[in-house]
Amino acid sequence: MVTEAQVWDALAEIPDPEIPPISIVDLGVVRDVSVENGTVHVEFTPTFLGCPALEVMRDQMAERIRELGAEPDVEVILDDSWSTDRITPEGREKLRASGFAPPAPRQAEGPKLVQLQSKAFKCPYCGSTETRLENIFGPTPCRSVRYCETCRQPFEQFKTI
Amino acid sequence: MSEQAPKPPSNTVLRGGSRVDALLAIADDELILGWRNSEWTGIAPFLEEDVAFSSIAQNEIGHARALYQLVAEELSTTADELAFDRQPEEYRCSAFVEQRLVPDWARTIARHYLYEQADERRIKELMASDDAEIAGLAAKIDREEAYHRMHAQMWHERLQAEPRYVEALEELQPLVDQRGEHVPEFEQLWNEMTEVRRSVAGATW
Description:
The complex is a heterodimer.
Chain A: H1 4-11, E1 30-36, E2 39-44, H2 53-67, E3 71-76, H3 89-97, E4 100-101, H4 113-116, E5 131-135, E6 143-148, E7 153-158
Parallel strand pairs in A: 2-3, 4-7
Antiparallel strand pairs in A: 1-2, 5-6, 6-7
Chain B: H1 19-38, H2 47-75, H3 79-84, H4 95-98, H5 105-127, H6 132-159, H7 163-172, H8 186-199
């Protein structure tokens, strides 16, 4: 009989399809795991609703659960319960080490253009805050593109959600 | 149908019609605008806007999918069937989002700015809904839309003194909530968008 802890361990081995250095558990998208009569119920909270990685994550979770000899039941939760604040401290450090600046904390009001255009964001390579916004959008919906004036390196900034 | 559909006051998204009607109108707006935005992929004035419009399109279509899922549960159907298996006359999007504006950047930005403003009012109203499913999804959508609004605001500030942009705002403003008849170019969009599903019944992505 599979245990919840075994399921969490198995899910922690699934890399984020778009940012492989971090796992989907680091990303905080697994809200809950429960086991009942050989069925593993997972509550999965999407990052961005249009993210093409969602299906990949869902299918990989189902596959890992089957490998444990259990029947998967992955429920996609369509509400505001995922936030970039749910990325674990380890996940944030892995992001930074891979050249992605971790997201700023969520605020009740939501981000403002003037904040994105400010120098409050730290370069993941040299730590300087002398960085400027290049594009609100980036290679995937979850990232913006910034440029570090100190080490002259463009970098990707995880958006706050 | 010679008469235009009356414009609903902007604070009655969920009143006066069914839940399904209200959600479908919003989902259709997001799907069709997402499609129109994606028409800039590869041909925007510069690379940053290629990336921005592609990303915005992806988000809008993601919002449409989530809204269709809520409706699909109620109607015992699927999001794909709602998105791709209806006849053109069954789509409830506004004529505003249907217009093909490529390659006119001024009008594209004017529509983007006006849509994001109208959409914000609509989302805030849904967030205050007593229906927990709707309110929860609207709150999530709002977090993503915040980035679209900032992008629209940035371009509005940049273009607001340009005569072509001012003219485009004046032209498009009255059309924001106009629903009822489709614009002629909607037919071509529908043909392209539903082509795969029409050629292979039940095709999935």
